[in-house]
Amino acid sequence: MALEGLIDGVPLTIIYTFVSGLTGIALLLFATYLVPRIVDRLTPAIDDQNEILRGNLAIATYIGKITQAVIVGISVVVAAAIIAGAM
Length: 87
Fold this sequence. Notes:
Radius of gyration: 20 Å
Helix content: over 70%
Order of helices and strands: HHHH
Structural class: mainly alpha
């Protein structure tokens, strides 16, 4: 009775979760590729690669933290989409 209606939606929920997960992975890979390039464009006076090679850990930490913040932000949005689809 009520269980049949619940079971009918399970395959769609699994498909939606799988597609959302793949979309999230694609967005994270794209953001990881794009964010350091945006930071390079916003800071033209600083040669990030050269500074990292010279041992300037502040630059490496700065770029790493910005990239991490973007990854966490996208992860939160994707997780909310997956949870909303499962409900």
